[in-house]
């Protein structure tokens, strides 16, 4: 009751390597712009921690426009692409591939960085990298599960007692085992899937359903 009416803090990490100025940045609302989004996240702090973990792994540019970078301190330390706009775009493309299908491209670099810091006895920094890497790994795993549900379009899950109909990552209907699923009025759930774009609502519900499936995987059948 006390949470009712309060604005919830929802954030995303946006990865756009196709834009005129490729960038990785925290945003409040996903758009239908062919970019990749990690989220929804519960706070700006979490979004920034994920962004820091990506920067730990790859030399992501920190300026608003790489073409105008005059060789900042991060470029001198090898932590950003400096004036090399083409290199920056390639780094962003690699991040997009990592988020979309191959997390090892980022997680492997983070493991190497953590190990290097530990060998130099910089244990506190190594622990920070490890914590951010763990957050990124868990977030990407959840994103993969959510995306699998969204891409599945429609599936039915059953156990010994119940049957559930899930479509576009949302619960459509449920019934006791042996009974027919109740009819559903077209559009009753308000599916709003457009291309590769998913608004926050279905993302949140898909995350809840994915978590439930993970906990009950031993007893569920598709």
Explain this structure.
- It is a single chain.
- The protein contains six helices and six strands.
- The chain has 222 residues and is α+β, with helices and mostly antiparallel strands.
- α4 packs antiparallel against α5 (123-152) and α5 packs across α6 (200-215).
- The model is unreliable at 190-197 (pLDDT under 50).
- The longest helix has 30 residues, at 123-152.
- It is elongated.
- The strands form two sheets. It has a three-stranded antiparallel sheet. The protein has a three-stranded antiparallel sheet with strand order 4-5-6.
- It has helices spanning 44-57, 73-76, 85-100, 104-119, 123-152, 200-215, and strands at 11-16, 23-27, 36-41, 154-158, 162-167, 170-176.
Number of strands: 6
The total count of helices amounts to: 6
- Please, what is the average pLDDT? 81
Span between termini: 36 Å
- In the sheet with the most strands, the strands line up as 2-1-3
Helix % is: 40-55%
Shape: elongated
**How much of the residues is beta strand, in percent?**
15-25%
Uncertain regions spanning at least 5 consecutive residues: 190-197
- Gyration radius over CA: 21 Å
| Class of secondary structure makeup | alpha+beta
